[in-house]
């Protein structure tokens, strides 16, 4: 079981390289944030998989990561709002631009 | 029996993580990539939590796994909504 | 297979570290720094240092990310968001390289510390707690921790000095606003109760398992930050007495416990075993409150809104 769980954990970690590529590449800031979000979820998954391998205390770390998973994204949408303290949902009519990559 | 369940469920979880990453890399625009991301967030993590739960010695650990997944779902839903809104109308940046 | 796992983790950490400082674009560097904090937290768990992992998860992946993103947003609004010209990076790069070389030298030149052996096992029952990390932080090396808590307070004082005269007395941070029934407002109402529970839990278990004042306090700070950003709570005014009391509670209780040790004849900050358990619990609770409030205030920043007198 140790072997399998380590394999899955290594697999999840390796897949995160793809998310990191998206952080590097962009092109939008939202794309980079999404990459970070996937790494966060992947980190939680890896910590869950590490728990049976020896320390169930790893779940406490996973709990903190999951609790604060949205913090960076909230900070991001705040920082990119016009006055730095807004909410992207407030504007009724958001100027729509071409949504291409 | 518990070990078989762990192997199968975490295997499915890994598949969804790989699929989510592939989508994040390959999908053509920001909003379809967001769709790929939530698959890994919700399903991948959910299956892994379920698989690991079969290895837990106490119910406390099972409850903790469930709580972590619930928090991740809450975060994923919030983040996708907010980031999508912020991406609307954002110009491409470096 | 665990070797492969560790190798992949190390490769990712090194790759992310390189990506953070390579290339240009402030925003990309910030996102990579957040990711770096996440991966390092996993690394600490692999090394068996769950206490450090908890702090790294809350600070590295949580608070500093918000701080940098807010700074990035402000640079953009002030019209200073462009990248610094390449020569400006050179001194920073040289300084970074110097620190790396010094660390490398220290790692190879200094003798490896002995694993905590029978000495710690002997002293632990007298410390008042069962988690060796908490015992070292709050009892055996209490001086360091006391001074650290004072440093946090000094940092906040320094930050508050930057307040404009016209804004002094106002609510700290930017005046936050959200759509009342929106996603962010809803998130800000659902998460904090759960987060409060997790933070208090981490403080409470710190006596016998990984957790404690720093870890729990940081989580509480991050949760308070979510509540403030999402408009669920309004940050207090900068002069509010109750909140200022919370800022100094930790160092104060720590000092009082130290003086109690001196009064009982054991010496300043040396806690005799009969009061150690109760004293450490009091210190831990007060310190967690102070750390939480100080860190949250640090990230929110000084008052910004000009108040009319």
TrEMBL record, chain A:
Record GO terms (molecular function): sodium:proton antiporter activity
Main location: membrane
Ranges annotated as spanning the membrane: 35-54, 61-79
A GO cellular component annotation in the UniProt record: plasma membrane
Keyword Mitochondrion included in the entry's annotation: no
Pfam families: MrpF_PhaF
Location(s) in or outside the cell: Cell membrane
Positions of the UniProt region annotated as Disordered: 80-101
Family annotation (InterPro entries): MrpF/PhaF-like
Membrane topology, from the record: Multi-pass membrane protein
Swiss-Prot/TrEMBL keywords: Cell membrane, Membrane, Transmembrane, Transmembrane helix, Transport
Family the entry assigns: Belongs to the CPA3 antiporters (TC 2.A.63) subunit F family.
Name the UniProt record assigns to this protein: Multiple resistance and pH regulation protein F
Organism: Rhodosalinus halophilus
From TrEMBL, chain B:
Keyword Transmembrane helix among UniProt keywords: yes
PANTHER family recorded: ANTIPORTER SUBUNIT MNHG2-RELATED
Stated name of the protein: Na+/H+ antiporter subunit G
Annotated GO MF terms: sodium:proton antiporter activity
Bilayer-crossing regions: 6-28, 40-57, 63-84
Alphabetical keyword list: Membrane, Transmembrane, Transmembrane helix
